[in-house]
Write a structure and sequence with these properties.
The protein is of the alpha+beta class. About 20% of the residues lie in helices and about 5% in strands. The chain is built from two helices and two strands; from the N terminus they run ββαα. It has a two-stranded antiparallel sheet. Strand 1 (about 25) and strand 2 form a beta hairpin. The longest helix has 13 residues, at about 70-80. The chain is globular and about 30 Å long. It starts with about 25 loop residues before the first strand and ends with a helix. The model has no long low-confidence stretch (mean pLDDT about 95). InterPro entries: 4Fe4S_Fe-S-bd, 4Fe4S_Fe_S_CS, PSI_iron-sulfur_center, YfhL-like. Keywords: 4Fe-4S, Iron, Iron-sulfur, Metal-binding. It comes from Halomonas aquatica. This is YfhL family 4Fe-4S dicluster ferredoxin.
């Protein structure tokens, strides 16, 4: 699954630089995650780095974007090959 940022986001700016795929960016009101670039850090780290640094715990799995670990790894290979 890709991750998503909920409206509890306080725009603290700590998640964006932690994303190895550049999937996190400022949105109109809160930060957003591009699901096409989010691999939950598969291929880079054991755990999603944005979740690790978020002080308000507002980065859950996106229930509309279910992906297996193999699919996330395939996405990682595509992103890093570019």
């Amino acid at each position: 699954m890709a991750l998503m940022i909920t409206d509890e986001c306080i725009n603290c700016d700590v998640c964006e630089p932690e994303c190895p795929n550049g999937a996190i960016s400022p949105g109109e009101e809160i930060y957003v995650i591009d699901p096409n670039l989010c691999t939950e850090c598969v291929g880079h780290y054991d755990e999603p780095q944005c979740q690790q640094v978020c002080p308000v715990d507002c980065i859950p799995l996106d229930p509309e974007r279910e992906e297996s670990r193999d699919e996330l790894m395939e996405k990682y290979h595509i992103i890093t090959a570019a």
